[in-house]
Records
---
Amino acid sequence: MSSAFVDLPSGPVGHQFELSGWVRGIALADVTVRIAGHEATLREHGGAPDGAAGWAAHTTRPVPNGVQPVSVFGHAGELLAQEVVIVGSNEGDDPLALVELDGPAPDSEVAGDLVLVTGWAMLNSRAPSMVEVFVEGSGVTRARTRLPRPDVGAAFPDFPDAVVSGFEARVPVDIPPGGARRVSVRVRLTTHGAGEWTSPTRFVTVRNPAGDAADELLADQLEEQTAGLLERVSDRRDPKHVLVLTHSLAIGGGQLWLQELLTGLVKKHDWRATVVTPVDGPLRDDCAALGVPVHLTSHYRIGDIASYEGHVSELALVARASGAGVALVNTLGAFSAADATKRAGLPTAWVVHESFELADFSFQNWGPAGLAPAVKQRWERSLNAVDQLLFVADATREMFVGHSAPQRCRTIRYGTPMVRFGGRISEHRRREARERLGVPQDALLLLNVGVVEPRKGQAGLISAAERVRHVAPNLVVAIVGQHPTPYGLALDDLVERGELEESVRLVPIQRDPTPWFHAADLFVNASDIESLPRSILEAVCCGLPVLASDVFGAREMIEDGRTGWLFEPNNADALTVALLRALDTPAERRRELADNAFAKLSDWLDPTGYADEYSDVLSEIANQGER
Amino acid sequence: MNDDLSDLPGPVRAELTRLRAERVVFVSEREKLLGQLQEADTSARELLADRDRLAAQVAELPETVRSSEEQTASIEALRAELAVARQERDALRNELTGTRAERDALRLRLLDAEVVLAGREAPASVPTTSAGAADRIAAAEARAAHLARELAATRATISWRVTAPLRAVRRKSR
């Protein structure tokens, strides 16, 4: 008769470990040891009692935290022994940390005025709740977490969070052009219950390149050349004709916002409009229906000063020849359009939706090398030159006011057609929507609407929802906006690895997500950057209590504890607690919070309101002439 | 005046004619000068008026400068106040973040306790051993030691400590 014994360790073990034991009545060659469900590598080992064969088994893949089974099998899969081993750390010890800091490399040189800190991490087998990055002289930056890492997922197949273990922080460093500084970089990981872990310090040199004198000279010459060309174009302006320069006519939030605005300006306020864009798209037909001609241009050329000046010159000539009396530039990245309209002598309003510092925006859009100093200088100059900078949130306005002057910066919030629901959805409509969408009537439906992307924090939402499942077993999370990007695919993986298919629904992008708003009980916005999230407005219009990360415009819409719940961004612990607070709140009180939110926002929820304000602003600057 | 000069001697007549022509020129010149004099007089009066106005402005200038300086100072003071208010707001926001972190930690400890009470962390191991008597004794001893270690490890966990008062309450209520 065969028998086996496992010599268990005296305390918890790490993710990779070796166990020993012995067998009797069977050759070692016929023995298999499985640890956490996977066959371990086996070798002979001393210390066995007389007549027994000693063995040592080593894990072949990392084992996640928790109580893990250890099984010893004999002939024909006969189970000889079964034990458990605890993977983890003793109370008071550091948690088990799996971390890799990909960048910046130690003692490397970073070009520009921003340090990108990237890596992946797991604390006690899970993605950490919070990753803080310390770059000397720049304070503490909370990293964006739960970024897709398929490579880590492949290396740690038994760790559900491995596929979203990435993190990233972009930390601006205050260094003038031509300057350099050596800075220290550290990363701290934190998760409630697991503890924290801090990386060793590494040093990097940040070097901000100086402007090229030849570039500056060329820039001035080309600018003069443009001025000469513009003198030959007659300057006839219609003060009721607006030239709109926008980044794209494809479907997207910023573009739909513009389309609604154009409709209001043309139909309600009798404006004549001409659109100039580098990217064609379905919204061109909408322009045609409004009688708005579209001029297609090339992509904004910002790679070098000569290309930049060439394109600005062409745009300025179009602007001058258009006969428009005023220009409206849409989005922060369209600065060459703003530069062009000002050179053409048009009073210009520039709408900035994005709540990013210039260094950060530049890094995200144009990479670590960023813009050539001469081009960047024109970006900053254009922000200061336009007649009005318009924002959708006060926080964004505050961020940019230093580039302009307070009297030339203004906040105009937008509304939504969903205001027609009046902040309440009938029980009948709710039941109907649930039936149509296949959501159980007794489920507690937590909704998130928005094209899935790392900044919107959908992976953190899935994690937080799982942590509160004990409190709300009927909780169903619906994330509307799924599409097959690396992040979207990582969410698919996360759901599959965590076996969450029953409780998490990843719904493809919907042209009209209204039924989801009708079916939901709670709405969550987990973004770490938002100027004025339209989805929160829509949720409020449909009477949904809102949980939102405490960022930019979101905090201007939601008041913690009075019109919803706010939580710290990029912190899964905080999001978990926000969910718990919402779940702890009686239904009647939730109803009151939703009513309060609708009452608070009702003044600007009507979408025609912002078209009126834009019409006023454009008329004002058109009639006061160029600044 | 007698314009007939025929009875005068020729040279005298010529001299007289020349003098008459000169007189016309002189009269015309005098008229012109009188006009210029009037213009100069007007200009002088205007200049005097300008001078008086400017003098009045100069007299007011210190007041204007003072007012402008006050406005600038006022703007600067408002800017400084705004900067201080923003700093205070940011400090309060940081404080709020800290307070929220404390509150969140407490709520999560409560969640841990709730989870433990609900029995979600029930042990999962069931040893299955087929061995001889000696082996069974050895295995049983090892198992006992293992269970003791597991119990000690469980008692050392945060959730066990957090739920200690709850267990005490439960024992008393039995």
---
Amino acid sequence: MKRFGLVLLPAGLALVIGILWQQGWLPNPIIYTRTDAGSLIFLLGLAISLMWAAGRAIWSLAWNRCELGLAQLGEEQVALRRRFIRRLDHELKNRLTAIRAALINLPQDSNSRVVGEMRTEVDRLAVLSTDLRKLVDLETRPIEQEVVDLAALLTELIGMAQQRPEASSRHLELTLPRVPWPLPPVAGDRDLLFLALHNLIDNSLKFCRPGDMIEIRTFEDGPFITVEVADTGPGVHPEDLPHLGEELFRGRITQEVEGGGLGLALVQTIVQRHAGTMRIRSRLGQGTVVAVRFPAARQGHA
Amino acid sequence: MVEEQTPCRILLVDDQPIIASNLAPYLERSGFIVTVAADGEAALRAIEDASPDLIVLDVLMPRLDGREVLRRLRKSGNWTPVILLTQVGDPTERAGALDEGADDYLNKPFEPYELLARIRAVIRRSRSGKPLAACRRLRCGPLELDRLTRRAALRGKEVTLTAKALSVLEYLMLHPNEVCTRERLLDAVWGWDYPAATRAVDVRIAELRRALNDDTDSPRFLETLIGQGYSFIGRVEAVS
């Protein structure tokens, strides 16, 4: 947000110097000049173009655009983090197995409400532990290289999303290119790609309020295929944006939304393992666009 | 559910005392006789002394881990059914679990009733001698599967399959005539659940059916049990 101010810097400076000169607080030398109309217009045009270009550059920098990536961390840090997660996961799993085994031995007449609640919480923790394992697993498992039709995958996902109760009050739309040729396939693991795209759509649905729009659009971009999941949801706080792909990070507005905080981290890892990139653009109060880009499968690749 | 007349003796090996001490009474209530060992060495001693009917073996243990126990057991020609409790979701570990001749495995954290279900299934299919899980090549009529080279052949002709479809086929062939729910296949082959997981399994089954020329209405290999899962029909034997 602060950087938006930079756009006004040249104009502000000119104003200040102009006032100083006008008031006579600075020596205000008189410049006598003779020029032709052509040069004057040329100089004016040049000045305006420069200001426009500078403004444009600053604007685009200030735009809440952020490429998520563990790549921002050093390799050593990433390895450290993975080791930590692996150990944490290991500990969690043993404790959870023990708690589940202990719960089943409770006498039948135990307070069933309390036991029920405990079971629910244990199940939640088990889901978290599974998700952690997925993350670690994804780092190392070999990625299959089958030809995956993203268009078919997305059509299936939209069908699934539309059956969810919250979908009825939100406008969901999928745009697939058909002309002059359909979306080329990508090479990868069908199930992982399905999971990644599912998580993105699921996130949108979760954070959007009734009446919001969700647009899923795909396009071919040279040798790449881009899938964008855009919504008119609440958007992401600019300070949260760089942390979205982090494990267990929960943004400001996510507090009241159910979720484990590993969804995007999973998407990010899957995308990276497919040699792709993920970008998020968001404006608070306006919405979010998550764009994932994969290399298209080479022709004749099987 | 009625168990065999003589109660089945189970050796439960886990280095976490709280897990063993809580699972044991549960399994005993379910009609088994349970002994507990806290590490690999103790497990080997207990197997020698008591020769249990089934072993539930944790993989990660201090001193002698579960896989080493299993390796030594199989090497000495002991084919007691083993259920491995795996910890790391690493697929190589899962694949390894089968290679070394574990009869089944379960990912932690599991619900105790899941373990009970596996134990019952393993006992039901256990037979004397080397289990299918310890064999490299499996055959069912014209269909052959080499688990080491990851190749399947139909009437001697190689069948092209994705790695996942092959793993599904492997799991189904190792558990012939047994109802394999989609959840179980997911746990075994994918290692973790997916959204719309059912579809993920169905896609692979469809691929297998196409590749094996198997008719849905009169299947030779893969039968769909509506509302339950899949089953490999036909007699699977080991090829030496």
